[in-house]
Every structure is written in structure tokens, then in C-alpha cells.
């Protein structure tokens, strides 16, 4: 079949085949890169929220430790009540972050179960 074609026609078909193959490889590569980008974006978004909640946990615990120190060192009842109020507020903030983190983890767990 190819032996009946002129050399220029054979070269043209060869280049067309190579070009089509390169085009196919480029399209498949672009599709794969898009999938990877979408996956990394979703992972980043989830990690950002988890990181924010972890920072909230650390900050609340750190600030409560300082407040407990100040309670021990408080010399007047007003200062003592102020620090105890702060400890309760920080505990509330910690509990809010813990609730949000639990909801995030449950949502991720259910989406992973649906994906499997």
C-alpha cells in the first residue's frame, strides 16, 4: 500500500502521523495536569482549614496557660475574676474550634467513603 505512494507522500504521511501522535500526547498530558491541579487544590483547601483550627487550639491553650499563671499570682479579687473570665472565654473558643474541626473531619470521612 505505502510502496505505491511517492516519497513526498510517504514523508507527508509520516510527518502527519508524528504530528497527530504529538498532539494526542499533549492533550492527554494537559488532561492529567488538570486532574493533578484539581486534586492538589482540594488538598490545599482542606489543609488550610485544619491548620487554622490547629493554630486556634495552640493559641487557646497557650493563652489559658498564661491566664492560669496570672490567677495564681493575682493579688486582688478583681484581677482574679478577670483572669477566670478570660479562661472561660478561651475555653469557649477552643470548644468552637474543636467542633468545627470535628465537622470538617466527619465531612472528609464521609466524602472519602463515597469515593471508595
From TrEMBL:
Q: What is the lineage of its organism?
A: Bacteria, Pseudomonadati, Pseudomonadota, Gammaproteobacteria, Oceanospirillales
Protein name (Swiss-Prot/TrEMBL) = MCP four helix bundle domain-containing protein
Organism of provenance: Marinomonas rhodophyticola
Which UniProt keywords are given for this protein, alphabetically ordered? Membrane, Transmembrane, Transmembrane helix
Q: Which domain of life is it from?
A: Bacteria
* Transmembrane portions of the chain: 12-30
Q: Start and end of every Chemotaxis methyl-accepting receptor HlyB-like 4HB MCP domain?
A: 5-108
